[in-house]
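ok so heres the complex, two chains, lmk if somethin looks off
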Amino acid sequence: MSFTRVAIIGLGLLGGSIGLAVRENLAQVRTTGFDLDPATRRRAGERALVDHVCDSAAEAAAQADLVIFCVPPGAMAAAARAIAGSVPGHAVISDVGSCKLAVARALTAELPDNPVIPAHPVAGTEQSGADAGFATLFRHRWCILTPPAGADPALVAKLGAFWEALGARIEQMDAAHHDRVLAVTSHLPHLIAYTIVGTASDLEEVTQSEVIKYSAGGFRDFTRIAASDPVMWRDVFLANKDAVLEMLQRFTEDLTALQRAIRVEDGAVLFDHFARTRAVRRSIIEQGQDDARADFGRRDH
Amino acid sequence: MSFTRVAIIGLGLLGGSIGLAVRENLAQVRTTGFDLDPATRRRAGERALVDHVCDSAAEAAAQADLVIFCVPPGAMAAAARAIAGSVPGHAVISDVGSCKLAVARALTAELPDNPVIPAHPVAGTEQSGADAGFATLFRHRWCILTPPAGADPALVAKLGAFWEALGARIEQMDAAHHDRVLAVTSHLPHLIAYTIVGTASDLEEVTQSEVIKYSAGGFRDFTRIAASDPVMWRDVFLANKDAVLEMLQRFTEDLTALQRAIRVEDGAVLFDHFARTRAVRRSIIEQGQDDARADFGRRDH
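and the predicted structre for the whole thing:
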């Protein structure tokens, strides 16, 4: 038994990719979609991201047995409120948000009569909007389900099967643990990248033009991450504040230790640190979580 | 008038790529090479990275009119000393090091009778060793020359023409300015990446296995940079200590400001910061310094 009518609220990178992946992998499932932005709705229609682009979230959700919210964390509550009168009581409510405690709270508060099973596909690119989605975004990526205590195991399995059909691998954990894991594998890296790109832009003695010209020395990698959607990332840091601040504290301690090693010219400490981080990269490639080619396989450009 | 015999000391990623690029673009130039590591010399011979792999640096340099040192900054002095008795007095001495003040000092001290014109092609990958080099590494990349005051302009032009023949674009600046520019576009990004990969590895409540599984949320990008050669990077931080510490200080100030914005939940500060960093990415792509495709064009893996 699979879902037959899936409503996608928010038609950007994630929502659009879900719509396209459903069409490619679950031909029998009918999709409806809505986005607050009229230009996004129009473009979603042109790209046929879903079978039917609706004029309201309520209309999109009216016949759904699965509703997936693909909006920034801070917009989840309002989006859920918008379907509260129309969504069938049996419909599973899910999402793709990068912070699970705060989002689960918002969805459950607005839709107390529906089963809420939050999910987070750990996948994305730096691009956003109705043109950014593609059908293979979730292939080989992990999708983390964070069902609340007491969730119906059959519905959890059904949601897992849905994501597996889109190419993802499934993992389950509680929402609090998810938020700590993602604080280190996603939120802290974005915060650091946003910071360093800002630092480089504000220097007086090194021009912006020089920063851009010589960015192939490493800096350009950070600019990709720092080109991610600013609204979404503002919301992520506000919604996962405690875990992010804790990971940031540890990062700062480690950075201070390396800073000291540079200041006192302790080459052995630097070498030992730099030598052990290689193994992490090797494991990521062995486990299919990154491209094995040098430089991510960037083409000569 | 171009160089006719080029000696490459150090046959890793950079040295090997120069050798291959010379064969592809400057067929009339004869190359010799040496590496301290016998296994690297053997592999360099198998891949024909240079026309002739020699048994000593002195032999490789004996008939050269251009010697390029492609060894870590901390190994420059010893490598230069090794050719002091054999290199012709008219041969131009150059290098590819990422710190120019310290390297220029070392080369000039060891080879006081030769013209020394340091250079830095801003290009590389996370891979190292005799298998890592490829002929197109320098294409569309900038090569920065840092000739000392009083350098012969004809020799500087000749060295610039050599790098242009390998596909690079040429810029000149003084060594001190180079070291500050690279501190922000290359050295600080590497230090940050090495730090965060270490921080993630040391957590107790989030396992190494979880860090690897969910690395596609952003973390994996940092692991690529943190997989770079640990000996070279130890040397870079020791050789460019002052500029790196200064840029690190500014980065820490900016990070503290964003940390505070998260703590007091000031979404406007976060949004403003995150919105302006997108423009830097756009300029880098417009100027051909990165791949325009989403996610660097990583293939589904």
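quick notes: The domain at 177-297 of chain B is CATH 1.10.3660.10 (6-phosphogluconate dehydrogenase C-terminal fold). thats all i got rn
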